[in-house]
Design a protein that fits this description.
Elements: E1 14-18, H1 23-39, E2 44-49, H2 51-57, E3 63-67, H3 74-84, E4 89-94, H4 99-105, E5 110-115, E6 131-132, H5 141-151, H6 167-176, E7 183-186, H7 199-211, E8 215-218, H8 224-236, E9 242-243, H9 250-258, E10 262-266, H10 269-276, E11 281-285, H11 290-293, E12 303-304, H12 306-314, H13 337-348
Parallel strand pairs: 1-2, 1-4, 2-3, 4-5, 5-6, 7-8, 7-10, 8-9, 10-11, 11-12
Length: 349
Amino acid sequence: MPGQIVKPIATPKSLCLLRLSAIGDVCHAVSMVQQIQTQYPEIEITWILGKVEHMLLKDLPGIEFIVFDKSKGIDGYKALRQQMKGRKFDVLLHMQVALRASIASLFVPAKIKVGFDKSRAKEGQWLFTNKRIEAQSEPHVLDGFNGFAKAIGVDIKTPNWNMPFGDNERSWVKEHINQDTPYVVISAAASKAERNWHAQGYAQVADHIVAKGLQVILCGGPTELEKTLAKDIEQHANTKLVNLVGKTNLKQLLAVLESAKLVIAPDTGPAHMATTVGTPVVGLYAHSNPQRTGPYNSLDHVVSVYPQCIAEQQGKAVKDLPWGIRAKGNLMHLISTEMVIEKVESTLI
């Protein structure tokens, strides 16, 4: 019955994972999946995910990917149903609470469908599962995902990643970035404009970094928002920056991040991509709690005004409010240039 905690399954032979988006979240999920593969090397894993996310992860070994294109509407569900015909899984890990994901889960033939614990099974997710993971106290998103691996008997280790990129992507980096001078990456734009810091601040931080003898590389996707923000940063900077915004695919971006001394970013996918390749991140946070959504291995390096924003909006401290509550409004300007430079300095030491 819904709400029942799953008892670990003895060596499941087949598993379907449902996590459609976004880039940061699928990066967290990769760590969990690879822990499952380590403990159950013979397991057959099918992962249903989004089109953009597939571009990043499609070459992960030992995983069959099925792309669910939400932009196709009902036709996307029809295509998924067709691909699921004749299949049977020991277990479905339903790791996304969005209603569209729950509807997609209806087409996955699995005896056991594991969802989040009661407090996190939002948007009616509990209606689409018959087991749930154990409740956790104030988990990071990655630790929350690890709860699904624990539910099928995996002994959780320290998170680690083996991301699918290699010599071709590293050669691309050597062709486009001067290898004689170390560099810092600024990935300035988040998917939502309100999470973006201002161009003047990024430019001042970039000038400070260049004055230390390093290069600054601007990275990001091909959207107009990202391109415009990068141009604004260049215009405000007093030094020459290398603008690669819109010029890398996701695998090339991984290689760029891997070779960086440091990445500076708001709450956005490249911050978590950098974590997967072992690069420290100075994350900039105002709207969400970095202890929940921040770059997993760089939580000590974040610049966060989230606690004060929440206190002002809710009249309570973070500890007295539901875990994961978000602050709203135009808040990123509360992060000062001095705060960021201080973290950059301490992280580069």
